[in-house]
Amino acid sequence: MDDPVAAAYEAALVLLTYRDRSLWEIRDRLKRKSYDEDVIEIVIIRLVDEGLLDDERFVHSAIRTGMGARPTGKRRLGYELKKKGIADEIINEGIREMYSDDDEEALAISLAEARWERLSGLTAEKRLLRLTGYLSRRGFSYEAVKRALSHIRLNFLDTLDENEVQ
Known about the structure:
By secondary structure, this protein is mostly helical. The chain has three domains: 4-49, Arc Repressor Mutant, subunit A, CATH 1.10.10; 55-99, Arc Repressor Mutant, subunit A, CATH 1.10.10; 102-159, Arc Repressor Mutant, subunit A (Orthogonal Bundle). It has helices spanning 4-18, 23-32, 37-49, 55-68, 74-83, 88-98, 101-118, 124-137, 142-156. Helix 1 (4-18) crosses helix 3, helix 5 (74-83) runs antiparallel to helix 6 (88-98) and helix 7 (101-118) packs across helix 8 (124-137).
C-alpha cells in the first residue's frame, strides 16, 4: 500500500479482530511496525470516532475475562490494566462498576476451596500458608483472603484427620 495511513489503519483492524485493545496497545503496536507518530494519531482518532477503540469498553471486557478465564482479584486486575496504559480513573470506575467486594470474596472462597483439595497431603498449617500465598499472588485484597481462610477453617478444618491438624 502506498498510503501509510491506510496501511496503519488496516494493521490496527487486524489487531482488533483478535480481541479488544487499549489505545496504548494499538499505539504501541503501530510504533513497533515503524509508523510515524502523525500517522498513528490519525489512525487512533479514526478508530475512536468509529467506536472501534474505547478504553472503557476494554476495561469492562478485561474485567469479565479476568473474572472468568483466569480468576483474579481487584488488585491484580488493576495492575494488569495499568500495564495496558489505561488511566487510573477508568480502571477504578470499571472495577467499582463491575467487581464488588462481595464478588471478590466469593471468587476467593471458590478458588480457596478448589486449591485446598489440591494441597492434600500437607499439614493444615502448610495448606493455609500456601493458600494465603496463592490468593495473594492472584491479586485478592487482604480482606478477601482473610474471609476465604476463615471459610476454609470453618468448613474444612473440622473434617481433617488428627494427624493433619498438628
